[in-house]
Sequence to fold (309 residues):
Amino acid sequence: MVTAAADRVATRRARQRAGSTLFGPKTMLFLLPGAIYLAVLSVYPLIDLFRTAFSDVTAENLLGERPFNGLDNMWRVIEDPSFGHVVLQTLAIVVIVLVVGLAGGFAAALILRPRTRLSGVTLGAMVFVWTLPAVVAGNLWKFLLESGGPVNSVLLWLHLIQQPVPWLANGTLAIVVLGLVNAWMVVPFCALVLRAALLDVSQELLEAAALDGAAGWKVTRHIVLPLLRPVISILGVLVVINAFRSFDLIFVMTSGGPGTSTTTLPYLGYQQAFKFYEFGQGSFTATLSLVIVLFLSAVYLRMNRREQA
Fold:
C-alpha cells in the first residue's frame, strides 16, 4: 500500500510538472504568434459574420453603421421561393458524393489490396487526382463535357447517342454531373483510407472463414464490412462535410445554373452577398451552412473518440 501511495504521489507531481511546462510563460510566448494569427484571420471574421447575419447590411452601409434587424434576414432567406430547391439540390449532391464516393472507394480498396507494382502505380495516380485543386478539376471536366468536347465526341463515334448531350445545360443532368465529379475527387481518399483498414484485417480470420466454406461476397459482407463499420462511419461524415461545403466546382462548371438548378447553400450565400449585395442575407446563409458543418464535425469527433475508446 505504501508503494502504491508513493507511486500515485510521484505520478501527480510528474503531471504537475508537465502541466507547468506545457502552460509555462515560455510556451505561451511561443504560441502567441499563432494565437494572434488565428484571432485575426478566423475568430474576428466569424464574429463579424454572426453580427452581419442579424443586421441590415447592403452595399450602401457596408462600411458604416449596421442596424440590427433581428431575424429579418432569416425570414427573407427562408421565404425565398428558391430556398427549398437549393436545400434539396444540396442534399442531392451530398447523397451522390456519399454513395458513389464510399462505394467506389471500397471497390477500389478491394481491387488494390494486393501489394503489387501495378497497385502502387494506381494508388500514386489516385493520390494525384485527390490532390488536384477543385478549380483545375472543374475546368478539366467542363472542357470534357462541352457539346463538342471529348465525351460527346466519343459517344457519337460509338453511336451511343444521336446528338451531343447538354451535360451542364440541363438542370437535372448538371446536378448529377456535379455530384459525380465531386465523387471522382473523393474516391481516391476513400480508397486510401479503406485500403489501410483492409490491410489491418486479420488474415487468420479470413483463412478461418475460408476453411468454413465462406468465400467472395459472403466474406466481404459478414466479416470485412462489420470490421470496417467504424472506419466507414467516420469516413462517411468526412465525405458529407466535404460535399456539403463544395463551392469551387459549382463556381467553375455551372455558376449555379442553368438558372438556379445547381445552386447549393454555400453558393447561394456567395450570390446573395457578392452578386445581389444583400450582405445580411448572404451572411445568414453562410452562418446556416457553418452551423451544419459544425454539427457534422461534432458528430465526427464524437465517433472518432468512441472508436479510439
Summary: The chain has 13 helices and no strands. The CA atoms of residues 126 and 188 lie 5 Å apart. The longest helix spans residues 279-308. The chain has a mean pLDDT of 85.
